[in-house]
Design goal:
Layout (H helix, E strand, L loop, with lengths): L1 E6 L7 H27 L4 H17 L4 H25 L25 E9 L4 E5 L2 E5 L1 E22 L11 E4 L2 E5 L1 E6 L9 E16 L9 E18 L7 E5 L2 E4 L3 E4 L7 E21 L4 E5 L4 E3 L2
Antiparallel strand pairs: 1-2, 2-5, 3-4, 4-15, 5-14, 6-13, 6-16, 7-12, 7-15, 8-11, 8-14, 9-10, 9-14
Length: 316
C-alpha cells in the first residue's frame, strides 16, 4: 500500500518520529484488515456461492434458458457498455481548475507564526490506483475492473504531516486551542455495475471518502513504550458511491464530482505538554468495495489532492 513520498527539504522529520508514525500506521492497517475480514465473512463464502450458482442453473433449465449462452452474451453486453464509458472519457474536456503550483517547500515560519509547518506527505494506494506528486499537488489515476463473487477492497489516498514547534504555540486564556485545516480535492469518480438479472449474485461498486485529523506529541517514555500522546483525533466518513444490485433491483452507474475546497474534521485540544512540538497528521483516503461485475474509476481525468498549512488558534 506504500506509494510516493514527498519530503520538505527545508523541514525534515526526525527519524525516530518517522519510525513511531510508521509503527502506528502498521497497527492501524492491521486493524483495518481485521475489519475487512469481518466484512468478507458476512458475505457468502465459496460453498454458499456454489449452491447459489447451482440453484440459478436449475432455474434457467426450468425456463429453457442456456445459462452458458446467457453468460456469454452478458459478457459481450458489459464489454460494450465499458467501451462506451471509455469513449466518453476520451472525448471529455476536463474542467479548468485555474490552479497555480503549490509552494511544496514553504519557508521556515516566523517566531510568532502559529501555523503548522509542512514536513512530509505520503501517498498510499492499492493496485490499480497510482499516486504521483507534481508541481500542483498529488495526482491519482486508475480504474479497478472486477468480476468475482468475493468482496474486494481497494483504496487510495495520502497522509500529510506537519509540525508546530513549542515556541510558536499561541497563547490562550481558556487553556484550549482549535485546529481547522482544509484541503482541496478536485476530479471525479465513476462507479458502475453490470445490469441486474435473475442469474447473477450481488454486484457492488461503493466508495467512501475518509477524512481524519490527529494532533499528537512525542513525550518521554521508557524504551519500547509508545511515546506518542494523542491530544485529539476526529474521523469523518462520507459515502460518495453506493451501487448495489441484487436480482432485478438496483441501478447501474453513478458519477461524482469532488468538491474542490474540503474542510477537514475540526479539533479542540487542551493541556499539551509544555516545551514539546505538536504534530498534526491529515489523512484523506478513498475506500472502495467491489463485488461481482463492477468498476470503480477515477474519471474524468484524475483526482488532485492539495494540502495547506493552517494556524492553531488559542481561546477556542
Amino acid at each position: 500500500m506504500n506509494g510516493a513520498t514527498y519530503v520538505n527539504p527545508k523541514h525534515s522529520m526526525p527519524e525516530e518520529v518517522i519510525k513511531e508514525l510508521d509503527l502506528a500506521q502498521r497497527e492501524e492497517l492491521e486493524e483495518m484488515h481485521q475489519q475487512r475480514d469481518l466484512a468478507k465473512y458476512a458475505r457468502p463464502d465459496e460453498e454458499a456461492r456454489a449452491h447459489i450458482a447451482e440453484t440459478q442453473r436449475s432455474v434457467a433449465r426450468s425456463l429453457g434458458i442456456d445459462l452458458d449462452d446467457y453468460r456469454a452474451k452478458e459478457v459481450e453486453d458489459r464489454a460494450r457498455q465499458l467501451r462506451k464509458l471509455e469513449e466518453v472519457a476520451e472525448t471529455h474536456v476536463g474542467m479548468d481548475r485555474h490552479l497555480s503550483p503549490l509552494d511544496l517547500e514553504p519557508p521556515a515560519p516566523r517566531a510568532a507564526d502559529p501555523s503548522f509547518w509542512f514536513a512530509r506527505a505520503e501517498a498510499s494506494e492499492t493496485t490499480p490506483f497510482n499516486g504521483k506528486f507534481l508541481a500542483d499537488g498529488l495526482h491519482f489515476t486508475g480504474r479497478a475492473t472486477y468480476n468475482s463473487g468475493s468482496l474486494s477492497f481497494r483504496n487510495f489516498g495520502a497522509r500529510i504531516r506537519y509540525e508546530l514547534q513549542s515556541n510558536r504555540i499561541p497563547p490562550t486564556t481558556t487553556g484550549r486551542w482549535r485546529s481547522d485545516p482544509h484541503v482541496e480535492i478536485f476530479g471525479g469518480l465513476l462507479g458502475s455495475v453490470g445490469p441486474p438479472d435473475l442469474f447473477s449474485g450481488d454486484r457492488w461498486s461503493k466508495c467512501w471518502m475518509i477524512r481524519r485529523q490527529t494532533l499528537f506529541q512525542f513525550v518521554f517514555a521508557p524504551p519500547g513504550v509508545d511515546n506518542r500522546r494523542i491530544l485529539g483525533q476526529r474521523v469523518d466518513a462520507q459515502n460518495l458511491i453506493f451501487l448495489e444490485t441484487s436480482g432485478l433491483g438496483g441501478s447501474g452507474t453513478r458519477a461524482v464530482t469532488l468538491p474542490g475546497f474540503q474542510p477537514m474534521p475540526s479539533l479542540v485540544i487542551s493541556s499539551p505538554s509544555p516545551g514539546i512540538s505538536i504534530w498534526a497528521e491529515l489523512e484523506v483516503r478513498f475506500d472502495i468495495q467491489l463485488e461481482g461485475n463492477s468498476v470503480l474509476w477515477i474519471h474524468p481525468n484524475d483526482v488532485l489532492l492539495r494540502g495547506f498549512q493552517w494556524p492553531l488558534v488559542g481561546n477556542a
